[in-house]
Specification:
Length: 712
């Protein structure tokens, strides 16, 4: 089979020449173990997190900026053309606010700039070596030169600071040595940065450059100035015959020249696409924006070192400021791994998290070296069970399920009998209560000082949807390992009956929290949607339709669902301002992208119209060309035009969009000839063996109220 072509995202000269627009568009790369590179199409750094090499110097996620920029100036015929720009304190852009970028593209995930100056055209590319803390920046001449040999001088700007900070008075003072095509930047007792100039020479000329302005940090209410150490320069002669450029790495750079390195990077992206297509043929007919999401998913998966020499796997919740969190990892896991044909990676992630379960709870924040895990989450462990269900349904659990099953049993037992933070089952109605004063336990988990913005103490609607779903899943998982499923069936029956207490009269959906300190909370929020979108629903079809209708009417936007109805007095339509102001709006009207996939699946459940549900996802194709190019962001303003805010790349937004597309497309792709597009419920009977599942395409069931029904 031929290798699939790479998706391409292209910006024309009009977009590139507009400084404001080109500065707002960011490219991001990752290396598979926590490191990344990022910048803007226009060139200026606008975040403290922008840089060519941000490496986990204190694994697993103690990330530091080690190489900030490579500012290139083209020289020919006695003239100079800066191909870069910087934004300085006071808002000045220099050396020029005239952007010389003729065009920009993402080819797969590789950012590509084309410059047109002085009758010449040249190209610049940046990519990371997967699995290493290394980045490559390359240039080549495409056209022109007029019989002269154009030269490129590249100023190399470095640092040695935490990626969350800015450079203050405590600045690094490394030992810098350069000879020929090699520069060594040594931070004694810490790390060494090595730079190679391939096709050129390096020389040291250190100086601190101050006054870099960071407007996106100012917008976030944070310190907005920075400084970087200019190490020196790289000098190249350009030709149309070869790439020239630099390779920068923590430690010794990976071997090989630029062209084969780029080819390796592109082959890996093609393998990821092929892997998804082999696992799900619907991807062969997918639009480019969906195929781009397959590549975007890979950015969040990383190898996590464990104790001793062991190596695990996890999910970075978002770039640039998030680490790996239990809740985010489990919500994102099916979309990032199962939808993309990577069940072994899913299994590895689940096994990495299993030893960290304590008192039936999964860490909300997965610890770094020497850190203590935080368990303040009432839902992460329930999402963990759902992730195991999804993996098992995909046929990828193997012997790992039997090894981890006691952990899953312990989770249900702890929720039933009671555990930390007031989490436990009410024997009167079979529902889960959760919460203590001053704690944030659900995904609406913002705390400002001592104030929890949305405390939601009592019995939250989505926690109990997850509880019922987990109990139904445990029936299947128990049967898989030869255990008794009946205790879970009894608990599920009780929870289903108790869940009727969430129903509001007049077809107005569900209460958000019941039995809270101040009674029931009828705030119109999207949490109720999980009672319809999860595989097992405690609601009948009439109630499911009412929930979807209410969410569609009052919460749905093109990019996700508002976290609070606009009619509520606490509604906040913009996610802007200081940290406290933004945190106050985080779950009070701000739109969250991860909920769009859940809405599409819920709408499909009640309408059976896969085309309608898939159409809900298509606005995300537009978002791929906004903010974090080629990926999907965290949140959007609640008010139109719903500008993207928060982290420009968010795992569960990518994952839930991709998972919904995968499940909905499978329902159409595998439907028998003459059958409606929504597929059909699997008839009762023995479950096919794994070999039989591999040999034939079966009709994929429509999500239904029936306990234990599997998504396609």
């Amino acid at each position: 089979m031929s290798q699939p072509s790479l998706p391409s995202l292209r910006l024309d000269q009009t977009a590139c020449a507009d400084l404001e627009q080109a500065e707002s568009l960011e490219w991001w790369l990752s290396n598979g173990h926590g490191g990344y590179a990022a910048g803007t199409v226009a060139g200026p750094l606008t975040r403290r997190y922008h840089g060519l090499l941000i490496a986990p110097l204190r694994p697993p996620l103690g990330r530091c900026l080690v190489l900030a920029k490579a500012d290139a100036t083209l020289t020919a015929g006695g003239r100079e053309w800066p191909l870069f720009a910087n934004r300085w304190a006071g808002g000045v852009v220099a050396p020029s606010d005239r952007i010389r970028v003729e065009a920009f593209a993402l080819e797969g995930r590789v950012p590509v700039w084309r410059f047109a100056v002085g009758g010449m055209e040249l190209e610049q590319r940046v990519w990371m070596e997967h699995g290493t803390d290394a980045v490559r920046i390359a240039w080549r001449l495409l056209r022109g030169g007029g019989g002269q040999t154009p030269r490129l001088r590249v100023a190399l700007l470095a640092n040695a600071r935490d990626h969350h900070g800015v450079t203050g008075n405590r600045r690094c003072d490394p030992r810098i040595g350069a000879e020929g095509d090699r520069m060594v930047v040594e931070h004694p007792g810490w790390f060494t940065l090595v730079i190679r100039a391939q096709g050129g020479t390096l020389h040291a000329e250190p100086a601190w450059i101050e006054g870099f302005d960071l407007p996106l940090e100012r917008e976030r209410g944070l310190e907005d100035g920075d400084a970087h150490l200019r190490l020196g320069y790289a000098d190249f002669h350009l030709s149309r015959r070869a790439w020239v450029g630099i390779t920068a790495a923590v430690g010794e750079p990976p071997p090989g020249e630029l062209r084969p390195s780029l080819a390796r990077h592109q082959r890996r992206d093609r393998r990821l696409l092929s892997q998804a297509e082999r696992a799900e043929p619907a991807f062969r007919q997918a639009a480019d924006w969906v195929r781009q999401l397959v590549l975007a998913a890979d950015a969040f998966l990383f190898h996590r070192p464990l104790s001793g020499s062991r190596s695990g796997a996890s999910v970075i919740a978002g770039y640039p400021w998030f680490g790996d969190w239990g809740r985010d990892t489990m919500i994102a896991l099916p979309g990032l791994t199962l939808a993309t044909g990577r069940p072994a990676q899913a299994r590895r992630i689940l096994r990495t998290f299993a030893p960290w379960v304590r008192d039936g709870l999964l860490p909300n924040s997965f610890p770094g070296a020497g850190e203590t895990p935080a368990f303040n989450s009432a839902d992460a462990a329930l999402w963990y069970i759902e992730a195991w269900r999804a993996l098992t349904a995909a046929g990828g659990s193997g012997a790992a399920l039997a090894q981890t099953y006691p952990v899953l049993e312990a989770i249900v037992r702890a929720y039933r009998d009671g555990t930390r933070f007031g989490i436990g089952m009410d024997p009167g109605d079979g529902l889960i209560r959760a919460g203590e004063p001053g704690l944030q336990l659900t995904w609406m988990d913002v705390k400002i000082g001592d104030r929890v913005v949305t405390p939601r103490m009592g019995k939250p609607v989505e926690i109990n949807a997850l509880w019922f779903n987990a109990l139904v899943a445990m029936q299947r998982l128990a049967s898989e390992v030869g255990a008794n499923p009946r205790p879970y069936a009894r608990l599920a029956d009780q929870a289903r009956a108790g869940y009727r207490r969430f129903l509001r009269s007049g077809g107005q959906g569900l209460l958000d929290v019941i039995d809270g300190p101040d009674g029931d909370d009828a705030s119109l929020r999207p949490n109720q949607l999980l009672a319809v979108s999860l595989p097992a629903s405690p609601l009948d079809s009439k109630a499911q339709a009412e929930v979807v209708a209410v969410c569609r009417r009052d919460l749905l936007t093109p990019f996700g669902l508002r976290t609070l109805a606009t009619s509520h007095p606490d509604y906040r339509g913009q996610h802007l301002g200081t940290v406290a102001e933004r945190d106050g709006a985080y779950h009070q009207g701000t739109v969250w992208g991860w909920l769009l996939g859940h809405f599409a699946l819920a709408e499909y459940r009640v309408t059976g119209d896969a085309d309608l549900a898939l159409a809900r996802l298509t606005p995300m194709a537009t978002h791929l060309t906004q903010a974090g190019l080629g990926s999907l962001g965290e949140v959007f303003d609640g008010d139109p035009p719903h500008r993207p805010r928060g982290a420009p790349l968010q795992a569960w937004t990518v994952a839930c969009t991709l998972e919904a597309w995968w499940r909905l497309s499978r329902s159409r792709f595998h439907a028998p000839s003459g059958a409606p597009s929504q597929g059909s419920i699997r008839p009762p009977g023995p479950k096919p063996s794994s070999n039989e599942r591999g040999r034939r395409l079966r009709p994929c069931p429509r999500p239904d109220v029936s306990p234990g029904i599997e998504y396609p």
